[in-house]
Amino acid sequence: MGSVETRKPHAVCVPYPSQGHVTPMMQLAKLLHSRGFHITFVNTEFNHRRLIRSRGPDSVKGLPDFRFETIPEGLPPSDRDATQDVPALCDSTRKNCLAPFLELLFKLNSSPQVPPVTCVISDGVMSFAIKAAEVLGIPEVQFWTASACSFMGYLQFSELLERGIIPFKKARNCLKAPAIIFNTFDEFEHEVLVAIAAKFPRIYTTGPLPLLARHIPDGPSKSIKSSLWKEDTNCIEWLNRREPSSVVYVNYGSVTVMSAQHLKEFAWGLANSKHPFLWIVRPDVVMGDSAVLPDEFFEDIKDRGLMTSWCSQYQVLSHPSVGVFLTHCGWNSTMEAICRGAPVICWPFFADQQTNCRYACTTWGIGMEVDHDVKRENIEFLVKEMMEGDEGKKMKEKALEWKKKAEAATDVGGASYNDFDRFVKEALYHG
After folding, report:
1. Per its UniProt entry, which superkingdom is the organism in (predicted)?
2. Is the pTM of this model over 0.90?
3. Between 3.10.20.30, 2.30.30.140, 3.40.50.720, 3.40.50.2000, what CATH number should domain 233-388 receive?
């Protein structure tokens, strides 16, 4: 390797091993790569195997200056094509990942094939990376892949503890890092970001990352993907045959599970709305069972409904035929909806999703929430109101307003564009 290559800054990126966390970390890694960084992207061994199954062995070959490495997550071996149990995974990475991650960093630093590691960027849940970076004496930045409003909630740990409400401690762990990145933009969560900055001045708002990523020049890194499931490309052809803004897109993300009864209620609510829909149903979406629906349902929807196991969500949301997004309100999905100007029907599951749902339905004015008991009549009503009603029209207009503001934030000279520049110069080059 030439002397110029060895002087490249080298960022090691460590996502939490769930699709909604891997995707934004990959977007961030590609942005840094486009700014001249050598990238090492660290997957767990479980997710490494899933990538190979979903996209083939070439998917993890990388490039000379964008490489993939693995560390064990500490859970029993499994070949399931599903997200691992979240509490068990969080606990296992916290207890078991520091030693193998340190070993990996030492290996990278002793290799003549790559530049020395100059910084570590880890998901806010993967706090072991803070300690590892301290050992090496290099900057460590936490990437909070959930919303800033949820982060602010977690910061109120002591007050919530007194009230008997005990959230995760991960936000507290983030505060040990010298800097924190948020996948949001200032105007979207302004009040919360001001409050966080008062407690922790070194924050960077660099979102929405899918829009910031449009500045990445065409090159080999564009071909690097991060989907842990095999994507069905036929759904785009199906969308091509639909009228503009006519389709309900339904996706509960990579972790949400439900009862078989809830699945049936969603199914008949969608069917009874009489609107076309594209429904992503993971094989593991029903708790302890397979996702089975009656034959009469499929007979009813055969000309206007498509069900598949996974897709390229951003590509689907970008399609002009999509009119509304029925979502679990994960932050990655919320940001992608904003990027495409899609209003949302919210069915939050856990973590930050209830907070995101509340903001979507009140502060941001782009969403309606599914009743907790999930009845088909309620699903039918919400779909019809979003697609046909006055409230739905207002929310579509509001979503398009937020889209324009997100585009402005990520344009050259916009707030998020400038914050990304500042992040690279201040947090990564100077620590």
Report:
1. Eukaryota
2. yes
3. 3.40.50.2000
